[in-house]
Amino acid sequence: MEEEINNILENTINVYNQMKVLNDSLMLSFQNDKDNYYQYAFAEMILDNLDKVCEKLENLDCKLCALQSEKNTRH
What pTM was estimated for this model as a whole? Predict the structure, then answer.
């Protein structure tokens, strides 16, 4: 379980870093070239990563609920 949590944390950190790059890119893009589509491609990468993180969090939540339920049943 700890490894899964660490994987989620790593993905979240990656998303955060990508968002920082996207924000910098958007600022430069709109100042220099209003038709620059780089930010859209990068946004798609971020959305894909966010989707993966959400899926992992949902799966982890289900596992934790099952463990808690099992623990409560034993007591």
Answer: 0.66
CA distances from 40 to 35, 36, 67, 72 (A): 11, 9, 41, 47
Range in 10-14, 28-32, 51-55, 59-63 with the lowest mean pLDDT: 28-32
* Residue 72, Cβ density class (10 Å: 0-12 exposed, 13-18 middle, ≥19 buried): exposed
Rounded Cα gap, residues 48 and 55, in angstroms:
11
**What are the structure tokens assigned to 52, written together?**
């993966």
Burial code of 34-49, b = ≥16 C-beta within 10 A, e = fewer? eeeeebeebeeebeeb
